[in-house]
């Protein structure tokens, strides 16, 4: 192990907001104050503005001109409930668009407490070596990565090795084997407070970190102070109101804690919007095998290390995560999300929740996006590459991504590549990103989000399931077009603002119908920074973030013709409602009319 460079050792500079750049070509670190133009930005607002300013839109995502930026949200590091989310930005190798990928784990709160507004990684090393970037209150160092965590070592083992080297208390971001091989579905894996894995999943940003030969970022916040609050009393009062709004809501306060996001299997199945067998049906009859209710009963019955409810970062009070155990009660996986279970269980027809859990663990271990991989798997089943419903075959292929065989490489290259390899027309992607768990033909609002978001198909960019299906914040008929354009626009604007705050997206459920809860969110930001922002200001922030992202995509060559759903959805009716996608191009383009 060779020590490369200690670029600075100036403890006091960390007590103010810092903007850190790590140049992987020169292996130098520079620490500056936050540029004036980024003052007041955090999370997605900061990552997207930075990418638009500094990344050449036409660059190759795996070349030296791409940059990765990691930024805590505005409220991260405080005691505000659910404020520990982290934004990662870059140009995506999967979509070619700008990308903000959002994750839980410990890193956001640690970076915020250390006074670090952004960590930028740029350039590419000259030597074919992988490195660890270590961030402490004493400075930033770049060290060669231990050889035993390279070349196919899974993330769980890598965390163990790095815990032994740096201490259990450190935060981590890891490039898994898939990222080392620069596969387009590679995620960035973040250690959570229990030493398990959370992912900045979508868009292949692990491949970008892998191209820069960063195996991991280790964050040691020992010695960091708490985040300064301009008006602590006001903050505390607002935080209390906000927490009550979350806990009082039936979805945010009860449903997600009991059944996780997998509560949606039965809900979407009932609504006829649960895509099955590569988007050829909207309902399955084995929903009980894979539902949130079954997951809850299984965890409860098995006991042991199982936990029905769990937070992905300290201070999460919604606690939609869980620890899913095996038959002996031993931990298999956590953050076992609806979209993953849907992709493998409904779209791919795997009827056993245990094998889906093992696949989920394997995906975390090799570091691939569990949504993109699941959609690619179902597409590969449609194309005859994998037998329908064969969980053991899928588990083997995912495990092979650690030292990828040709088939493992194809699946980890994403749904669009699989569709081409199989000669299919039914390829569920927008801007080459797999369409998640909600069929646009029978939940039309989410189709508008998929089509128009700057990120490629991404339900979290404007979660119209809320008003279409759950009837939270709005009540819009999912099968009708009326009101959907305005709703998809409003949801994307609001989401861009929430993603900038460091809040988990699920806080939306608690504040959508509770003006006091929403005001409390604004009050917390105002109390922290000594501001007087209004709801209109957050609306303006959300719009500005979207426009910046759109500007990048336009300069990268994207036009409104890319804001379209796959053509097969226009002529293949989806049972049981037998609906097609029926928005005109002009109607879709109206989403961007603001
Ligand atoms: S609600 Fe779920 S996703 Fe959100 S912060 Fe908590 S555990 Fe993480």
Overall geometry: globular
Low-confidence parts lasting 5 or more residues at pLDDT below 50? 1-15
Distinct helical segment count: 24
Strand order of the largest sheet: 1-9-8-13-10-11-12
Small molecules in complex: iron/sulfur cluster
Per DSSP E runs of 2 or more residues, the count of β-strands stands at 18
SSE-based structural type: alpha+beta
Range of helix content: 25-40%
Radius of gyration: 22 Å
Please give the largest β-sheet.
Answer: 7 strands, mixed
Please characterize this protein's 3D structure.
This protein has 594 residues and is of the alpha+beta class. It is 40% helix and 15% strand. It has 24 helices and 18 strands. It has a seven-stranded mixed β-sheet, with helices on both faces. Helix 11 crosses helix 12 (353-366) and helix 12 packs parallel to helix 14 (391-400). The termini are far apart. It binds iron/sulfur cluster.
